[in-house]
Amino acid sequence: MSPEIATYIGYAASLFIVLSFILKDLRKIRIVNLIGCICFVIYGIFSGMLWPVIIPNAIICFVQMYYLLIPKQK
């Protein structure tokens, strides 16, 4: 992948993360944040295996998926 495309993926990731702070619905926040974290993982991989970017965002992806997939308990 070209470095230019990786840069655009990084910008998209930042946009999704910032957008997740604007939303009020928790489910939408988690979905948008998950998309941003996935983009950051892809960015980290294609920018030369940037482990400080890949590891925390991969963990956050799993956390977001966990809370999106478990049923709500009231």
Largest sheet: none
Mean pLDDT: 95
**Range of strand content:** under 5%
Secondary structure tally: strands? 0
Task: Give me the secondary-structure category.
Answer: mainly alpha
Q: What form results from the Cα inertia axes?
A: elongated
Element order: H for helix, E for strand = HHH
Number of helices: 3
Task: Give start-end ranges of low-pLDDT stretches.
Answer: none
> Helical residue percent?
over 70%
In whole angstroms, the N-to-C terminal distance is 46 Å
Radius of gyration: 13 Å
Written description of the protein model:
This protein is mainly α and 74 residues long. The protein has 3 helices and no strands. The protein is elongated.
What's the structural blueprint in terms of helices and strands?
Layout: H1 3-22, H2 26-46, H3 51-69
Name the features.
0% strand, 3 helices, 74 residues
Describe the structure concisely for a colleague.
The protein has helices at about 5-20, 25-45, 50-70. By secondary structure, it is mainly α. Helix 1 (about 5-20) packs antiparallel against helix 2 (about 25-45) and helix 2 packs antiparallel against helix 3.
